[in-house]
């Protein structure tokens, strides 16, 4: 079997095998977390073995098509079956079109990063940080977006983007990073906790005609 076919096949199996632990007992939750971690390790070693290279870099004005594409793809992957389809369409049209990113990329209060394949320069992940208003620039900021295409989960791309965000925080002498994550997005919540984020509250996120419960997590630096 060609190495790419093998990678796709194993990628699909791993994608199918990824397990959520909503509603499970503490003992089962512990076991499932262990299984998920094994899946992550396997995916990472697979990506190294097949030589799939991904680079992460800051976004510049003119890059807006790439983050828009990956933003729209990942919002659907992440929330299909959790959120209402019309709300997702409204959200994408209001916030994730290329002109929205074009505006962000020239705004001093925004930093953005993109992850791309070295071969073909396909965008597969991105992150956006937005400085809070009314304080010194980036003394406190929201990690507004951190999304990786699901075929590329577990390849340490999220970790690399988070390291870029943390490096930016260190350069700007930031004191706090905060974010909001859907309460059912256990996968992402686990990921953030590994970087030291702790829950600070529960809030409502409005999209289209509905509101969704989100956890507010924060990291004090
Ligand atoms: C959450 C997300 C950003 C993580 O990115 P990723 O590239 O898949 O994660 P990485 O491969 O960088 O993992 C980094 C580390 O966290 C671990 N990890 C990641 N997710 C984990 C999970 N659900 N459970 C346990 N460990 C996890 C990995 O094992 C790895 O640890 P290691 O370096 O010690 O081996 C990614 O899965 C994603 O984009 N999800 C969908 C979008 C989303 O929900 N974004 C957040 C919206 S608020």
Present the secondary structure layout:
Blueprint: H1 3-17, H2 26-49, E1 54-58, H3 65-79, H4 85-95, H5 98-105, E2 110-117, E3 123-131, E4 140-148, H6 157-171, E5 176-182, H7 186-194, E6 198-207, E7 210-220
Parallel strand pairs: 4-5
Antiparallel strand pairs: 1-2, 2-3, 3-4, 5-7, 6-7
Helix pairs in contact: 1-2, 3-5
Task: Describe what this molecule looks like in 3D.
This protein has 221 residues and is an alpha+beta fold. The chain folds into two domains: 1-52; 54-220, Aminopeptidase. Helix content is 44%, strand content 27%. It has seven helices and seven strands; from the N terminus they run ααβαααβββαβαββ. The chain has a seven-stranded mixed beta sheet with strand order 1-2-3-4-5-7-6, with helices on both faces. A hairpin with a 2-residue loop joins β6 and β7. The longest helix has 24 residues, at 26-49. The protein is globular, with a radius of gyration of 18 Å. Mean pLDDT is 86; it is low at 1-21. Coenzyme A is lined by residues 33, 36-37, 40, 74, 78, 146-148, 153-159, 181, 185, 187-188, 190-191, 194.
Quick description:
With 221 residues, this protein is of the alpha+beta class. The protein is built from seven helices and seven strands. Strands 1-2-3-4-5-7-6 form a seven-stranded mixed β-sheet, sandwiched between helices.
